[in-house]
Amino acid sequence: MLARGGCCGRFVKDASGDGGLSGRWCERGSYKNKLLNLAEDLGRRFLPAFDSPTGLQYAWIKLKYGVMENETTETSTSGCGSLILEMGVLSRLTGDLRYESAALRALRKLWSRQVP
Q1: pLDDT higher than threshold 60 for residue 77
Q2: Burial of 111 (0-12, 13-18, 19+ CB in 10 A)
Q3: What is the pLDDT of residue 40?
Q4: Rounded-to-integer distance, Cα 42 and Cα 112, Å
Q5: How far apart are the first and last CA of the chain?
Q6: Contacts with 84 (C-beta within 8 Å, 6 or more apart), sequence order
């Protein structure tokens, strides 16, 4: 599943993939970290999506190749806001703060764009 090069929506894939794998790992630690390893692999593949000119994550990313050239910077505000949950859990489970930091930067950028 994770080795395919298809394009996926960042929000949908994070909520169902990364968040689901992290959650199942919490529930079933007896998998000898296989689910956590998959979640971390997916999280690593998603990190380039947070390196955008707007400060918000790209909505689309190819799991095999990363963000494609000329990718649109349009993204979902709900996707941006909720990523802190999945990426935060992944950081706590792995001890790698890159995931939570990337999502927190995007969330802060989103918050700074609110209209008073």
Answers
A1: yes
A2: exposed
A3: 92
A4: 28
A5: 43
A6: 100, 103, 104, 107
- Residue with token string 């007896």: 30
Structure-block tokens of residue 116: 């008073």
Query: What tokens were used for 58?
Result: 């790209």
What does pTM read for this prediction?
0.72
Helix (H) or strand (E) segment spanning residue 8: strand 7-9
The secondary structure of 30-62 as a DSSP string is GGTTHHHHHHHHHHHHHGGGG--TTSSPPSEEE
Element containing residue 80 per DSSP (H, E)? helix 77-94
- Least Cα distance to 38 among 60, 59, 23, 57 occurs for 23
* Structure token digits, residue 50: 């947070």
Average pLDDT in the chain:
79
> Token pair for residue 38?
């998959």
| Residue 28 pLDDT | 54
